[in-house]
């Protein structure tokens, strides 16, 4: 497979980003352990939150202005860590990727549960996909067994298996593309629009040596974004023939080190900074210019990738931000706060904050 190296174009110096004065709304108490992923339904205001406590919590956040406005809808109780979740295009099915090597599906209307079981190791990621040559929407599951399996929920066996060079660390799908970040620090891009598409069409090396942690595709399939443990994010066009968008790589989720002796730091111009993992990246569904990054430093920010600048920086939370997701209309973003194990077991304090919060976004950010 060909390997493409990104151009190391970085975000230029820019004025400080605007601080948004809006308030965050906490969701009702739900997850009892760190939230691994957040996903909004494409057609309504339902939000799914998968958790290491063994469940997926689904909420209705329609017209939410305070916590009491957000209503729990249902939960998928699995009994082992849930590492990812997703909704089908019409919102009728919810999916969970679990450490029991299975994908669990829930029919939102009937409550019927379906298990898709064929992986030999935990399922790290799950996405609903649409392939032009398939008669119905499919479910793609990426696993630590070094495969992506594609499923028709009406059939007991996968319709296709994609062999990968390493374990799946993150995965996303949009338009005709399916992408997976693997443990050998490559992005595996699958073009679902091509005949015989259940294979990797291109492998891409990120512009860093650090492990990829997170991955997002723009809704129109034009771009992908990735974050890594080294406090960097990158954006690139999915089609390597595209010349209208220059590759972008930039530093984020860093702060000055006041004590100058943190082992997880880097030096620049004599000043030391603490560097934090980018735990999640998310494109806004309303446009491919607005990207959110969420980090172990407890902050999340919004970036205009075409203007190559940060447009919003939000206040620091009580703990790391482990997941972020834009609402389907692009007018709100949900984030999860919880311990991300970046400091090992010594950093896991009793009573650590574990919650999901919602922030409404002002108009004009997606332009």
UniProtKB/TrEMBL annotation:
Signal peptide: none annotated. Residues 1-31 are annotated as: Disordered. Keywords: Repeat, WD repeat. The keyword Protease does not apply. WD repeats lie at residues 28-69, 116-161, 278-313. It comes from the Eukaryota. PANTHER family: MRNA EXPORT FACTOR AND BUB3. This is Uncharacterized protein. It comes from Remersonia thermophila.
């Amino acid at each position: 497979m060909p390997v493409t190296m990104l151009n190391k174009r970085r975000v230029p110096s820019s004025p400080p980003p605007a601080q948004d004065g809006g308030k965050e709304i906490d969701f009702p108490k739900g997850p009892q352990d760190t939230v691994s992923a957040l996903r909004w339904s494409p057609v309504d205001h339902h939000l799914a939150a998968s958790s290491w406590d063994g469940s997926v919590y689904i909420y209705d956040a329609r017209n939410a202005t305070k916590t009491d406005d957000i209503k729990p809808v249902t939960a998928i109780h699995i009994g082992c860590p849930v590492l990812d979740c997703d909704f089908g295009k019409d919102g009728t099915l919810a999916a969970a990727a679990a450490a029991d090597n299975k994908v669990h599906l829930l029919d939102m209307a009937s409550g019927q549960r379906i298990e898709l079981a064929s992986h030999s190791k935990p399922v790290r990621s799950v996405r609903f996909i649409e392939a032009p040559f398939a008669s119905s929407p499919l479910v793609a599951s990426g696993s630590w067994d070094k495969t992506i399996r594609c499923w028709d929920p009406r059939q007991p066996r996968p319709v296709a298996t994609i062999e990968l060079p390493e374990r799946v660390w993150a995965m996303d799908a949009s338009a005709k593309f399916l992408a997976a970040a693997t443990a050998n620090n490559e992005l595996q891009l699958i073009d679902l629009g091509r005949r015989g598409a259940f294979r990797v069409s291109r492998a891409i090396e990120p512009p860093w040596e650090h492990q990829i942690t997170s991955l997002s595709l723009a809704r129109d399939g034009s771009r992908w974004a990735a974050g890594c443990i080294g406090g960097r994010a990158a954006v690139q066009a999915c089609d390597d023939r595209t010349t209208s968008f220059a590759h972008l790589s930039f530093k984020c989720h860093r702060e000055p080190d006041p004590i100058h002796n943190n082992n997880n730091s880097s030096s620049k111009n004599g000043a030391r900074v603490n560097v934090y993992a980018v735990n999640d990246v998310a494109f806004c569904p309303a446009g491919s210019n607005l990207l959110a990054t969420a980090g172990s430093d407890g902050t999340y920010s919004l970036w205009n990738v075409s203007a190559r600048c940060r447009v919003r920086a939000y206040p620091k939370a009580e703990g790391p931000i482990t997941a972020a997701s834009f609402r389907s209309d692009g007018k709100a973003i949900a984030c999860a706060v919880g311990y991300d194990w970046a400091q090992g077991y010594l950093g896991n304090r009793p009573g650590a904050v574990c919650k999901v919060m919602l922030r409404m976004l002002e108009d004009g950010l997606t332009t």
